[in-house]
Amino acid sequence: MTDVITYLSNYREDTPEWIDRYLRGEQITFSDIMSSRVGYYPGSGYDGTLMKIGNKSRSVHSFLYVDYLVSRRDLEEHIAQPKSILGYHSVGKIEWTEADLLPNGQYPLTINKRPKLDPNIFVDPHEKPYCFTLIMERDSDQNEERGAKHFAITFLFADGIATYYQLFVREYAKAPWLFLLQDHGFGCNYDVFGRGGILAEIIQTSQCRPAFVLCADNTFIWKDYQKVPCVESLCDYYRNPRTLYEMSPLRHEKPVGQTTLTSQTSEILNNKNIE
Predict the structure, then answer these.
(1) What domain range is 166 assigned to?
(2) Which of 101, 187, 260, 270 is the most buried (most CB within 10 A)?
């Protein structure tokens, strides 16, 4: 048996060239960020698990955290804490607008499933949406065991289900490489992220599928995924087990981005614009 980080280390990638360009003072776009492997975590809160796994294994250098319950003020206060991102400090911050993320505008999302609850039921209408990227650098007193020299993390105040469709399925037509999948029970989700929910319907229909999924034991994994053999589950801060899954090698591939979603229109990014 091996652990998740050691296993994913077999899929190491070099630091994306857009990070190097940014450090040289060149301008980058959101398209640059989406051009490399992405680790995606909807309903992320302040959980650093995905970032830790991708960074220490060097299999992912860019992370997208999405949560409509985390205000910008609370997030920035959390990040400012000394041990928030242990062993790293920020060397750059990039603010994004909705037009940066979706230069072609929002795409109509229609599906044949209704959410369990109203998509806006948990959203504070007075909270201003935001999106920004931090470029992180390893502290000088840390060695390579801590993780990559540089990585990036993007924080987006939005609906994690609609964001998957807008960014990964439609605008950039590429799936996240690593996905942290967890239904949070009483965590204010209007629909489940796992099997049987709207997100599963979007993924099944579009065939825009992450290569690897770290799935919590309280969440039903999507169709056509299987456990990675001989890899131990890991526990988060609250000792909730999470297991690594990969796409079934027997699954029939379809072109990413060709979707035929029909029927009930869903909410797009909480009907809010990032300013």
Answers:
(1) 4-271
(2) 101
